[in-house]
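Service request form, structural biology core

Requester: graduate student, group of Dr. S.
Request type: structure prediction, single chain
Budget code: on file
Notes: please return the result as structure tokens.

Sequence provided:
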Amino acid sequence: MPSGIFSTGSGHSPRVPSGELVVKVDTRDFDRMAAVFAFVGVDMRSALRRAINHTGNKARTQVGRALVKQTGLKYGRVREELRTINAAVGSLSYIIQARGGYVSLKEFAAQQRQKGVSAAPWGKRRVFPHTFIVASLGGHVFERKGPARYPIRKLWGPAIPAEMVKDQTKAAFETTVETLLPARIDKEINAILSGRAPAG
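Core staff response, request fulfilled:
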């Protein structure tokens, strides 16, 4: 194919900043209790760390499921783009990070139809008028940039980092943390006091 007839805007897949969700405990609320615990040889931060990591793992599962519905991507594809940083005693934050740019429309079950390509980005199938699949270019979806046959432009769907921090995915994260974290903190502290969990 001659040069100058294929474009993606900048010539590269568009990128978005990395998305990030954080489970974090403000330990100032626990300072007085922590001092009492320390007096009897118990480090409460270890209980907080375990509680945060347990809740964070639950939240990550819900975030992944919500992203499947919100983006239209398969669960395995979503999981590939998520990574986590566990909380530590010295850093009581559990971080879920998403990477990657906008996903090619090809990955949303694209199918050629008479009036254009049918695909399901954002979980909603529709036909993109006057678009077409080019098998020789990896099966991606394109449209013409003008009335002439060339140049053509590649089409994209949503980006996981952008979707993760808004709408139903953000809500799923916040609901999970708000619902589970307080009770989990109580459980971890009681486990230490009863001797069922290590104090450090």
